[in-house]
Amino acid sequence: MFQGKRWEFVRARIEENIASKQFPPGEKIPNDVELASKYGVNRHTVRYAIRALEQKGVLRVEQGRGTFVVENPTPYLLSSQTRLTDNLLAQGRLARRDILSARTMPADDRLAGHLDVTRGDDVLCIDTLSYQDDIPIVIAHNYFAAKRTPGLLDVFSGLNSVSTALKRVGIASYTQQWVLINARLPTEDEARLLGMSTASPVFVKENLDCSDGVPIKFGENILCAARIHFRIDFNELASAGLSATRLI
Fold first, then answer.
1. Three-state secondary structure call for residue 233
2. Other C-beta atoms within 10 Å of 192: how many?
3. What 3 state SS string does 203-227 have?
């Protein structure tokens, strides 16, 4: 007989169902009414157990969709060349991107500093939402120096690809100069777009892309932490003459 609180009993049974693949990775589990009936408890007890498993990173609650078993996180290679879409395609996971907005805005002090432009200069801002299979994984805010990327908004809306759009405006290649990663809780809008709980963390990845040493794009990506893990290519760092300690 189980010794402990009722919600701990439910938590243990759900974990057993996940371990036995009765609730497989990525699949939606029964709703709280069904689970309450299955385990002989009330809905409040089930919700408490689900909240604990969500905080543990075993389950994810998607607003309006239900509760899902957390799948194996997507490896995100951090290198000077690799992009998120490349990571997904290389793993055979379908990748698509929705354009949330595209506009021109004046550079504030932060953007002016990153893009090496003057405060008030035009900056192109493209916001997108990318998916792995049909699961939203990252909100991307991309900022471009308008004077270096004329016509970018026009070509991007048809291509929906940053690298291809940049080639169309004359920028054949670019590389990441630096990456900064932090963690925080998502805003309500971010949680809604990513289909996650505001109680689960996101990674905030900032990076600067340059072409021939000239800043082209500053990016700020909001990633659901439970669906991603980062991998650093030390071989590439070594070939570039960098050491791991210089990343800190």
1. coil
2. 15
3. EEEEEEEEECCEEEEEEEEEEEHHH
Q: Using CA atoms, how far apart are residues 186 and 179, in angstroms rounded to an integer? A: 20
Contact indicator for 166, 216 with CB cutoff of 8 Å: yes
Yes or no: say if 188 and 195 are a contact pair by the CB < 8 Å rule: no
Name the 3-class secondary structure at 114: helix
Residue given tokens 């919700």 in the structure block: 47
Q: What residues form DSSP beta bridges with 135? A: 132
Summarised one tens digit per residue, pLDDT across range 129-156 is 988 777 788 999 999 999 999 999 888 8
The alpha carbon of residue 103 and the mean position of all alpha carbons in its chain are separated, in whole angstroms, by: 22
Cα 95-136-211 angle, rounded to 5 deg = 60
Rounded to whole angstroms, how far apart are CA atoms 74 and 183? 17
Q: Is the pLDDT of residue 32 over 50?
A: yes
No. of H helices and E strands in the chain? 9, 10
Q: 131 - beta bridge partners? A: 96, 136
Q: What is the pLDDT of residues 173-200, one digit of tens each?
A: 888 889 999 999 999 999 999 988 787 8
Nearest residue to 223 (alpha-carbon basis) of 134, 140, 138, 141? 138
Write down the pTM of the prediction. 0.70
- What is the Cα gyration radius of the chain? 21
Using alpha carbons, list the distances in angstroms from residue 103 to 87, 90, 123, 217: 27, 31, 8, 15
